[in-house]
Amino acid sequence: MKQELKENQGLPGSLLWTLAIIAGISVANLYYNQPLLNRISRDLQISEFTANLIAMITQIGYAIGLLFIIPLGDLYKRKTIILINFSILVVSLLTIALAPDIHLILFASFLTGVCSVMPQIFVPIAAQFSTPETKGRNVGMIISGLLTGILASRVVSGIVGEYLGWRFIFFVAAVLMVICVIIIMRVLPDIPSNFKGKYSDLMKSLFSLVVEYPQLRVSSLRAGIAFGSFLALWTSLAFKMEQAPFYAGNNVVGLLGLCGVAGALTASFVGRYVHILGVKRLNYIGCSLMFAAWLLLYWGQDTYAGIIAGILVIDIGIQSIQLSNQTTIFALNPKASNRINTIFMTTYFIGGSMGTFLAGTFWHWFGWTGVVGTGIMLTACSLAINIFAKK
């Protein structure tokens, strides 16, 4: 049943769980293609480089969606935006499943990336309508759903692709999005817009918000740089694991990704302590955990125990940093929650891209030691921002 939502008055548990589950289902669309690129390459008789463009163009679409779609949540009814994006996703996923050539797949993958940003509209909903005491926990639940979707998507698509072909998972994804459309129509209340004006004015206001709120700049930067450290690991892990002494295939790397469940499970738990410990203290804790993780990944680099321990610890560390920063920024201007989240997530994405680039470069030059150095350097930068930022 639909319930009227009032700012800071509480979010029904059933609606919160529904949004968390749908967040996981929708963000999974970004990652289904990654374990299947080699099969797509063989089936369409294209090079591995061309097949890799599918994953890249999907991520580019996601970045564009973050910047240009999410702010619309302050200008139009969020329910309408969600339904339109999910409907487009149904078409784009079916197009990928049926496409006879790579050009159509690339176009549909771009649309899939653009329209898979809807969980970043769910996060401001959880922040805006939760009570102050439950805000961190509820945002953490949405993030938990999102992370679970990311983890499960790679594993499920790899298994399904192995036995039923790479196209089948996109048919399944399209059906899931149809179900999500029906559920959103039935359970999500109409939420009025917060911004009066034109779309051009809305986009200009992003720059005003960056200038007006120093805490938004600080939170976005320290979280984004830490995310770069986190992605430095995942960018280089497959290269590390295929070498001695592991000689592991992609299936093993995928299973190591399941260790990220630690991050998904701790997101809601960490969220409970945001208003108790405060954002700066949680950032100190997060950076400390990430330093410890990189030391484990260096000292235990030739053992599964060391690799798994490092993955577990770094996942908990990045959740402490992301959740503490993302939860607190919504209090700066609740009426601009979607635009604030746009600024945060775009910076977060840029930081992740920087970490990916640096890790790839230093892996080429110095191997695993270069990757560890990159992770430690970026974590140190995030820590320095936390130390020198004013309260």
Describe this structure in words.
It is a single chain. The protein has 391 residues and is an all-alpha fold. The protein has helices spanning 13-27, 37-44, 48-68, 78-98, 102-115, 119-129, 135-164, 168-187, 199-212, 214-241, 250-257, 261-272, 274-277, 279-299, 304-329, 337-366, 368-388. The longest helix has 30 residues, at 135-164. The model has no long low-confidence stretch (mean pLDDT 87).
Major beta sheet summary: none
Shape: globular
What Rg do the Cα atoms give? 20 Å
Helices, by number, come to: 17
Return the string of H and E elements. Answer: HHHHHHHHHHHHHHHHH
Average pLDDT rating? 87
Number of strands: 0
Whole-Å distance between the termini? Answer: 42 Å
Unreliable spans are none
Structural class: mainly alpha
User: How much helical structure, as a percent, in the residues?
Assistant: over 70%
Kindly estimate the percentage of residues that lie in beta strands according to DSSP: under 5%
Short recap of the structure:
This protein is mostly helical and 391 residues long. It has 17 helices and no strands. The mean pLDDT is 87.
Any chance you could write out the topology, listing elements then pairs?
Blueprint: H1 13-27, H2 37-44, H3 48-68, H4 78-98, H5 102-115, H6 119-129, H7 135-164, H8 168-187, H9 199-212, H10 214-241, H11 250-257, H12 261-272, H13 274-277, H14 279-299, H15 304-329, H16 337-366, H17 368-388
Helix pairs in contact: 1-6, 1-7, 1-8, 2-3, 3-5, 3-16, 4-5, 4-8, 6-7, 6-16, 7-11, 7-12, 7-15, 9-16, 10-15, 10-16, 10-17, 12-15, 14-15, 14-17, 16-17
